[in-house]
Amino acid sequence: MVQHAPALNRLVGELKKLPGIGERTALRLAFHLLKSPRGLESLAEALLQVRDQVRPCSVCFALAEQDPCPLCAGGRDSAVICVVETSQDLLALERSNAFSGSYHVLQGAISPLRGVNPSDLRIDELLERVGRGGVEEVVIATNFSVEGETTALYLARQLKPLGVRVTRLAHGIPLGSDIEYVDPATVQWALKGRSEL
Question: Which of the following CATH numbers is that of domain 75-168: 1.10.10.10, 2.60.40.10, 3.40.1360.10, 3.40.50.80?
Fold first, then answer.
C-alpha cells in the first residue's frame, strides 16, 4: 500500500467526510487541488468565508449571510408558512416560483433511529411563530420518507390545536411520467391523494 504524506492523508480524510465522497474520489480531488495552488487557496478562503458569514436566519432558520434573511426581510406573505427540513429544500421550492409565503426550516426531520427528537429541531420556534397570530396556513413540505412523514404527522398534531389550517404538499405520479414505470408506493400515494375534476 502506498503511503502518502500525512498532510495529504488528512486532506483525503476530511474530503471523505463529505456526502457521496469515497476514498478514491477524495484522493482524486486532493490531487486535483494540489495541481493548482491558487485553486486550493480559493477553496480555503471560500470555506472560511462560509464559516464566518453564513448563519441561520433568526426568523425562518434558513442559512443566509444577513439576519433576517432576504426572504424574511422581503415582505413575503406571513399568513402562510411553508415548513421544510433543510435550506436545500427551501431553495428547491423557491426555484419553482410557485410559493410567495414565508418559510420555516426545521434543520432536519424526526428520526428516533438516528437519535433526532422533536426537541432537536426548530419545532418550538415554529409553534411560537404560529402562536403569535397572523398565520392562517402552515404548508408541511417535509420529504416523503419515513422520517419526513413522521415529522409531518407530529407537526400536524402540534399545530391543529392552535387553530391554523395545516396542509401537506401533494405527492404522486410526476408530470410527464408513464404509470407503468412508476414504483408501486408512488402509485399508492397518488390513488390515496386523488382529487375531483
Answer: 3.40.1360.10
pTM: 0.83
Instruction: For residue 17, give the C-alpha cell.
Output: 467526510
Quickly name the fold that domain 6-53 has: Helicase, Ruva Protein; domain 3 (1.10.8)
For residues 147 and 111, the answer to whether their CB atoms sit within 8 Å is yes
pLDDT digits (tens, 9 = 90+) for 14-48: 999 999 999 999 999 999 998 988 888 999 999 99
Under a CB-based contact definition with an 8 Å cutoff, are residues 119 and 108 in contact? no
Supply 123's cell numbers.
419545532
The model's confidence at residue 1, banded by pLDDT at 50, 70 and 90, is: very low
d(CA 12, CA 27): 6
